[in-house]
Structure formats: C-alpha cells, structure tokens
Design a protein that fits this description.
Length: 259
C-alpha cells in the first residue's frame, strides 16, 4: 500500500515517530510521500529523521496557500525558497502541496494566485508533478493549471472532496485524484459516488495524516497505517478485492511520482 500524502515531519509525530513508522510497515504500507512546507526549517530537519527511519519515503516540497501571505507577490522569493529546498532534498519527487484555499482565506486571494502560478511554472521547469490543494476555489485553480501548465503538467488533486465537475476537469487535465479518510464518513455518499466513477488507473490513496482519520479511527490522530481503510473503501466502490485495488493504486503512485 501507498500513503501518497502525509505530514510525517509535522511536530505532531515527533514524540513517537519510530512507532508510527513501525505501525505503517506492519500494516503493509510500502512507502509514503511526505509533504514539506518550503522554508520551514523544523520540518526540513525532521524530514531527515523520517528518511533515516524509513528510507523508502519520498518528499514533496511547496508553499501552501495558507502561507502565501508570507511571500506576498514576491515571486522571485517564492521560486528561490522552493528551488533551494528541493536542491537540498534529493528525495523530492513532487512540488506541493500548492494551490488555492478560499474557505479560510488566510492569505489574500491575489497573493495566493501569484504564489500558486509561480510554483506551477517552477514545476514545469523542473519536470515535477504537482500536489494540488483546492478548497472553494475550483475555477481559479483550474485556470492556473491550464494557463501555467500548458498541457504538459502532471499531478494530483489531493484529498479530493470536490464536485463531479472538478473531478472530470482534473481527469481531463491528465491528473490523478487522491482520496483520504473523508471517503469513509457517513455523510460522504456523494463523494463515494464520484470515486466510483474515477477510472482505476487514476486513483491514489492517502491519509493526509495527522488530519482526517478514517472510520473507525475518526476523531483520533491519523497516521499512514490507516491508509488501508481507504484502499478497502475504494475496492468496495469499484467492486474488486482490496488486494487488486492496492496493486492498481500502488502502480499509479509509481507512474506519477517515479519514486
């Protein structure tokens, strides 16, 4: 199994990181993609510890829309910060998570878009896939991906919880859709129907841990070992066994991120 999006370098895991990784391995998780906030020295240091404990782990580096206000419209600083950290992190396989978040609006929307555009351009230059965060910003997110992606950008809409229209637009761009614990929530019937319609060769599984623990762990700290519940949920929706879904989503991860 693969956890294609987790925050193992977050301080939430620092006290028992070795145990969290041991449980992931025991659950059959082959590897994970650890999301790192560009410019966060503490996370960058902790990521080295993660890699020592779990050499198969790979990383993604980017400036989250919540942090965009720290850069304003200084595009040069955005690019330098991300590029320099990627150079220091040879196990980086993607640029992200990046995107737009109009739900919380922690950063002004024009600033979010400027920071997002700069990073998409950088991803194209470095030929890296992107990990996209989008919340209540579907039209603007798609516009940036189309304008700056120029048709040759790959990536994933992570922790997908959007509309059927967003799902189809992402697929049309050649993107993958990754599902997390929300898929298992009682009220997520509409999301499950969308996941049922996504081609198996475009599905990814993730935890987004420490957030959004799946049923039956909802309300607890999430961790990579729990990705098995997402695999099972997707398998049931596509009417195949979990082992077959695992093979598909693992192959999809390797195809996209070339770990």
């Amino acid at each position: 199994m693969i956890d294609s999006h987790c925050h193992l370098a977050d301080e939430t895991f620092s006290a028992d990181l070795d145990a969290v990784i041991a449980r992931a391995k025991a659950a059959g998780v082959e590897r994970a993609l650890v999301i790192l906030e560009a410019g966060n020295d503490q996370e960058e240091t902790e990521a080295r510890r993660v890699h020592e404990l779990w050499p198969e782990v790979r990383a993604a580096v980017g400036i989250h829309p919540h942090a965009a206000h720290e850069y304003g419209t200084n595009v040069d600083r955005v690019v330098t910060t991300v590029r320099d950290q990627i150079r220091r992190s040879p196990l980086t396989r993607a640029l992200g998570e990046i995107g737009l978040d109009y739900h919380y609006d922690y950063s002004p929307r024009d600033v979010q878009k400027a920071v997002f555009r700069a990073q998409v351009r950088l991803a194209r230059e470095l030929t890296l896939p992107v990990v996209i965060h989008t919340r209540e910003a579907d039209d603007d997110t798609l516009k940036v991906l189309r304008d700056e992606g120029k048709g040759d950008l790959t990536g994933v809409l992570h922790c997908f919880s959007g509309t059927a229209a967003l799902a189809q637009a992402g697929l049309d761009l050649g993107f993958y859709l990754s599902f997390a614990g929300i898929l298992t929530f009682n009220a997520a019937g509409g999301l499950r129907e969308i996941a049922r319609q996504v081609p198996i060769d475009r599905l990814l599984t993730e935890t987004d841990s420490p957030f959004l623990a799946p049923v039956p762990h909802r309300g607890k700290r999430n961790e990579p070992a729990f990705v098995s519940h997402i695999v099972t949920a997707l398998a049931q929706l596509h009417e195949i066994d979990a082992a077959e879904m695992d093979r598909h989503t693992t192959a999809n991860f390797h195809r996209l991120f070339r770990p």
